[in-house]
Each structure stands twice: as C-alpha cells, then as structure tokens.
Amino acid sequence: MKNGITTRGMAFSALFGALLVVSSYLNIHLGFTPIPISLENLVVMLTGAILGPLYGFISVAMVVVLTALGIPLLHGSGGFALLLGPTGGFIWAYPFAALLIGWLVKRVKGRGPLTFVMTFLILELCGSLFLYLLGVPWLAHKAGVSLQKAMIMGCYPYLPGDAVKAALAAVILVPIRQVFPASRIVGVRPGAHSAK
C-alpha cells in the first residue's frame, strides 16, 4: 500500500462497524436453533462492497476483536464465550467475507443487468455461502450434532432470506458504486494502493 491508512477510511470503517453492531440487535430467534435470523450478513455485504477489501476487513474485524475483548457489541454480549459459542464460526468469518466481497466487487465494471447479476452472485457466494463454510461445522461441533443436522439448524432455513439480502444489497450497491467508488469514499486515489 503506497498511501497508507487514511483518516477518512478509518472514519467510515468505524461508521460501518457501528452499523454492524446495531444490526446485531435486530434479529429473530427460531425455536429449534441458536442461530437467529439477522441483518448482520447484509451489513457485512455492504461494508465490503462499499469500503473495499482493506477497510471492509478493518471495519468488521474491529467489531469482532472488541467483542472478543469483552465489550458487549454483538447481540449485547462480549467476550470469548460469544465467539466460542454456537454462532462463533459465523462471526469469525465476517471479516474475511467483507475482504472477499470488497476484492471481488471492485472488479465488476460497467452498469446494467449483467453488473447487477455479477454483484448479486458475489454477495450471495461470499456474504452467505462462505459464512456457512465456517459457521455450520462449528455449530455442529458446539451443538454435538451431525453436519447434516447442523445444516438444518444453521443453513437451509436461512438461504431464501440470504438471497433476498444479497439482491437488496446489489440494488443498493450498483448505483452507489457508479457515483462513489470505494477509493472515493475512503479517500484513496484509484490505483494508489496495492490491495488487488
């Protein structure tokens, strides 16, 4: 990175981190699983795509690290107990999902239906399915159930909602990125850093 970390980038990272914290309180608990329906992965999608890979990662990782240190940020809870609990695998995956989304979305150029479809697929794959790669096996481990049972508890019921969230995020992102690319939002000249 040639330009270093910008004050503007860190300010937006803090802002999106706060949005993630707020979103963690907006959830619906289902009776058969400890995994709630929430807007957290929608915020992770938006954070990575709007801020780009570096600041998207920083924003979400700050929340995860502060939560691990005991500050009650996610769901009003904090400490390693939350990160080692049934939802821990999903939480650990959040910063890396934001990183992947930011890295891939900035490579989608142009406008129109194809841009929307490509953005949607990236958001769905990285902001939803990627989270299940870590979240579901960890849920199976913590709940002491088979992987198949964990898929029922922590994946299948959420897939339709995740598709809706990815579509909503794509609808929001495509026009925003036309006017405000990540480099403009975080105060870095296009091509000024090497996070490619």
From TrEMBL:
Protein keywords: Cell membrane, Membrane, Transmembrane, Transmembrane helix, Transport
Membrane-topology annotation of the record: Multi-pass membrane protein
Gene3D superfamilies assigned to the protein according to its UniProt record, in alphabetical order: 1.10.1760.20
Keyword Transport assigned: yes
Highest taxon, organism lineage: Bacteria
Family statement: Belongs to the BioY family.
Compartment annotation: Cell membrane
Protein name: Biotin transporter
Source lineage: Bacteria, Bacillati, Bacillota, Bacilli, Bacillales
Pfam families: BioY (PF02632)
Organism: Paenibacillus vulneris
InterPro entries associated with the record: BioY
Membrane-crossing residue ranges in chain numbering: 12-30, 42-69, 81-104, 116-140
